[in-house]
Protein 1
Amino acid sequence: MKKLAKVLSLVMALVLCLALFSACGAEKDGGKEKLIMGTNAAFPPYEYYDGDKIVGIDAEIAALLAEKLGMELEITDMDFNGIISAVQNGVVDIGLAGMTVTPKRLESVNFSDPYAKGIQVVIVKEGSDIKAIKDLEGKLIGVQEATTGDIYSTDEFGEGNIKRYQNGAAAISALQGDIVDAVIIDNEPAKAFVKENKGLKILEAHYADEDYAIAVAKDNTELLEKINKALDELKADGSIDKIVNKYIPS
Ligand code: GLN
């Protein structure tokens, strides 16, 4: 009888230990607050798929930010056009998508300090008669819907000269198929697209210079402050430069 009691208490102690252990484990994995990033993973080298994983400059910066904030990163792929409202509605915590700071967007969301520079450039077919920005007058320009390329060129050349596509790759296909005469898009994705597709080139003239930053909901100033502090540290210790140089070797 004494022996049985001993065995029983041993078993109970073991059960208790296991329960405690798994509870601790659960807290460590699932207990971290999530940092949900909204992006459009068709924008190399900032965000794109490598197999079924989203990689790129923004994805790596987000991973370091989450680490600094003690949060668990989750990336949600969506249309570029939907990112700002997803941030506003709290569907995602941050919009990190090579996103340019514009006065209009600042009416809807806050932006972090800038973490990179963007340039809008013009892609044409080799041998095109479009040699400078002014030659775009009266031509059909392909853009990614709701991007600054779309917004600026619609303003300058008029609605009738713009054709909108869901992403950069679709605009490039349209250029290859002579459906549009040029594509206006950010410089780094432009380089990636021109490398992948024969017979295209980027005009030397820059169409616009811009700042990329992270979008955060207007009412989430606490997160914005934390992100700016973490960004400062990642800039100061060279982490951001390291990531950028990995994807954009100079
Ligand atoms: N920088 C551009 C913008 O903010 C394009 C960004 C993108 O397509 N991911 O509008």
Protein 2
Amino acid sequence: AEAWKVLAAGGRALDAVEKGVQVPEGDPLETSVGYGGLPDRDGRVTLDSCIMDEAANCGAVACLEHIMHPISVARRVMEKTPHVLLVGDGALQFALAQGFKKENLLTAASEKAWREWLKKAEYKPIANIENHDTIGMVALDQQQNMSGACTTSGMAYKIHGRVGDSPIIGAGLFVDNEIGAATSTGVGEEVIRICGSHLVVELMRQGNSPQEACELAVKRIVKNQPKKSREMQIGFLALSKNGAVGAYALQKGFTYALQTPEIKNQLFEAKSYYA
Ligand code: GLY
């Protein structure tokens, strides 16, 4: 809804996706993104985000702590530095120099869940099979320009320093203004292994619809990990330059929101490989 306000007013897709993903980043009840995100096994909330525009400009931060809106830091990396990706302390130092406020992102509820987890401290890297663990957003504006954003607190109770697919351009997000845009959610390691979002866009370039491209990418993960793929969730979303939409996941229950001039911010359930 926040992204649509920008698009409906004739604004840039880049501004729309930044505004859109800031909502779950700032929501303390959303435990897989930004403020309130579940911490790593050391109790630290570490955030991964990236953003990409219509001219292949991109910026990203990984393992960033204490900043409410990592997507906006990623945008500053894109706009104010010659680099694409800043990580850890360097990303925090940059954010503070840019005027972002240092905050505690670990809510009482997330701390309680982490302390409960510590009792057994069993690490099962199974991303939320019921739904997903990241927000990825892609948009096409009235000037026919595309942009995308992807942001997450990553897998709960990960090893400190672990980075998933979400801040990796080509893995968690990819935009090619001539072809389309794609983003992913789920077990980041498997998405990185296939350069997932880049793969989806390249499959569209070869003539596949966004739906076919998402399905082919998920099938490649199944081919790589026939056994493990039954126990984890991965989903792709894609939008083509002509406004066609695709969505596909490994498991049932992957929902996504779509808004167009005809469809008012509606939730849809993606088709899945496993029933
Ligand atoms: N897809 C989010 C992550 O693996 O961290």
Protein 3
Amino acid sequence: MTQLDVIKDQLREHNHSYYILDDPRVPDAEYDRLMQQLLTIEKANPQWVTADSPSQRVGDKPLESFKQVTHAIPMLSLDNVFNGDDLCDFDRRVRERLNKYLQRPLDQPIAYACEPKLDGIAVSLTYEKGMLVTAATRGDGSRGEDITQNIRTLDSVPLRLIGKNWPETLEVRGEVYMPSVGFEALNTKLVEQGLKTYVNPRNTAAGSLRQLDSRITAQRPLEMCAYSIGLVSEESPLPPQHFDILHQLQVWGFKINAEMRRVLGIEACLDYYQALAVKRSHLAYEIDGIVFKVDELELQKSLGFVARAPRWAIAHKFPAQEEMTRVLKVEFQVGRTGAVTPVARLEPVFVGGVTVSNATLHNMDEIQRLDLHIGDTVIVRRAGDVIPKVVKVVLERRQANAQVVEAPLTCPKCKGPVEREDGETALRCVNGLSCAAQIVQAIKHFVSRKAMDIDGLGEKQVQSLVESGRVKHIADLYALDQTALIAMDRMGEKSANNLLSALQKSKSTSLAKFLFSLGIREVGEATARSLALHFGALDNIKAADIQSLLAVEDVGPIVAQRIFHFFTDNETLAVIDKLQNLGVTWPEFDPVDTEQQNLPFKDICFVITGTLTSVSREELKIQLQELGAKVASSVSKKTDYLVAGDKAGSKLVKALDLKVPVLDESQVQMMMANAQA
Ligand code: IVH
């Protein structure tokens, strides 16, 4: 087999798993690279181009189980570029061709429609006399699958056109995709049900749309955006520009993308690309590039098509969010509460704009679900600012010497016993604060901003303080003096003094912060605050039995147990005494007769999610709490309002499910202003 045949075969295989099976075996970037290689070879040797080359068609044969639909006008693909120079070359070719065939001045800039390249599945919808009659997938470009029943379930698809003057026959083309929130929520549900998860939103949209049972499609949060037209009867002419046609489609009831712009010249296209690259991670859906289209239909017509794609459009792709790499080893890390978490050490790979060499594997269940072995080739995904994740093992590439991952029997740090508690997925080192890894994490938590807020102690310093034996538990921090600090690596007199004054300053705190900083399992900021508000004084908490702990809002039986145990442990109590003796202090109060009782938001429970623009989530939380509100971290039936910013995720889905009222940023600000008025 020649190298050319190998590439073609690989592309055919990837095409099949991607388009037919909805089960991509390799990341898009790998596919694009192979296609580029094929195109380069074929360009240099046109005599080698065969009719069955993957470069000569789009997608692959549709599955036999749906009725077939022949597209009146083939549904083509787009050529890709990966950098600005190649984009400028595209523009130059366009201008040169128009100059040659239409004598259009070479230096006259082209008007382009700029559109996000939505990462979903292409569909064609045919309307007769304004009624939706057929919907089809792209399939191999000439013939697709009849998915009319499924498409009818999408809210964003008009079943009957609105307005008037639409052509008797109108074929609208566009992308069906799944917004990120829906994708995350669906995968969470699938994990809970022990079912196979989807790799990415594109693959989820395809899988959801190609369900033989359209009732399943109906439950999936799919959307459709129109991006072009196909066959159109001629009696009522459409506008002569692509951009205006899409706005006409919007008038007739279609969703079009809100980011779409019309610009003049390729420089403006480059600016648009840059702007969207920044915006990308804040969009509610995934895009994998920008599509630039010559706006004038007359010019499009004269530019025409090549085998695979139009000459008047191009996709400028973003750096890939999925890449393939190898698992070199799996290590286990110990967290603050003793949870032993597997981490994959990877052959470094550039993905989602950064080099990634580690990815969390969460727990042994996840390793089993992925069927991950050491030495495996895996697909790593990093979308937005999210932590890199291993989403799939490429089983076809597993080598005979791939090793099964064994759960550790002892703690990787202190060699103490590791246990798995009933109903828990995590393995846990039971050595508590005699495990160095847990002490380091406990101290890191103690000094963190939302806890005691002690500046100047990074991971390295904490590690060296613990390993040298100078700090055995959190209270030892307050016993450090200048001599001890200066003896540390990379600690000069100035930083030592800064640290000492930070330690000093942190001693005046609040009961809520102090409780949070102790790192009691399951006691996050919100619970710490509830405890402080409920009991008012530390002694009351120490004396509380399970029953009285259960009376605190937000505290259930498990949390109550954890708190009770924490405060009945003699070693813990000794550390707390020591902290207080060393000067850590906070105002205590009697919760019964404080003003807290009369605050306007008393008994109102908020949850905040997504990216806010005017304040940080943290600031808003404090503002709400100052008005007496409770701010919880998860949505439940007890939640009164969800404040949802940009890119809100599964919390928004849950709130909608539970019919919890959702406020945007300005609405909550308004509510606060009214309450204070
Ligand atoms: S135009 C002849 N516009 O990208 C032009 N395509 O590789 C056909 N896509 O099959 C496509 N967003 O699934 C166009 N704004 C957009 C798009 C878009 C996503 C997809 C579409 C197409 C593929 C081309």
